[in-house]
Amino acid sequence: MTVRVAMWSGPRNISTAMMRSFESRADTVVVDEPLYAHYLAVTGIDHPGRDAILASQPTRWQEVAAALTGPLPGSPAVQYQKHMAHHLLPEIGRDWLGGLTHAFLIRDPSHVVTSYARVRGEPTLEDLGYPQQVEIFRAFGGPVVDAADVLRDPEGTLRRLCAGLGFAFDPAMLSWAPGPRDSDGVWAPFWYAAVRASTGFAAYDPSPADVPERLRPLVEAALPYYEELAARRL
């Protein structure tokens, strides 16, 4: 029976590196941001590669949900679904989420906001995905890992994560070959340059974030959500 891992992350995190890590397992298939096209279709947001994204995925969330919970060719031991939490819009039904095993990748909002501001000047709390992560966690639970812990101790953190998901850690998760993957979303050329050049998780950088003054209230708004999840991290 396949373990369907829904990993919920916000933007400007190590979510793509984590997807690479799981894809390095011989028993795992990955799905890259399956709700992205629906998110763009409903919100009308103009992201790089918008037309290609809309053409590459179903734009109805019901079709996405059916694919993520339906039969899988080859019956892999693990299906790893990389989700951006902000793609889970309010009108999307939640019942289908009960068929998944949830996990959460979090990051200190001061670093998220500082990084996000470089690519989009005025992010909102909903853009960062913290409220959605907390909503899913409260409803379904699941292991929580902090990006800082992954980068400080990849093997130890991944061992705890795999144990929390109900399967064994594989040392193959610690490295991967550089380059693109067929599993990458069509948006990869715009966002995945660093990951495509990588062969493993980046070194941990302990430098504090330099949050722009105008965005400090956003960090304060995100902190209670982050702290609720961080208190439960592995």
UniProtKB/TrEMBL annotation:
MF term (GO), any: hydrolase activity
Recorded coiled-coil stretches: none
Keyword annotations from UniProtKB, A to Z: Hydrolase
Entry-linked InterPro entries: Class-IV_PLP-Dep_Aminotrnsfr (IPR050571), P-loop_NTPase (IPR027417)
GO biological process: carboxylic acid metabolic process
A Pfam family assignment: Sulfotransfer_5
Organism domain of life: Bacteria
PANTHER family reported in the protein's UniProt record: AMINO-ACID AMINOTRANSFERASE, AMINODEOXYCHORISMATE LYASE
Similarity annotation: Belongs to the class-IV pyridoxal-phosphate-dependent aminotransferase family.
Name of the protein this chain belongs to: HAD family hydrolase
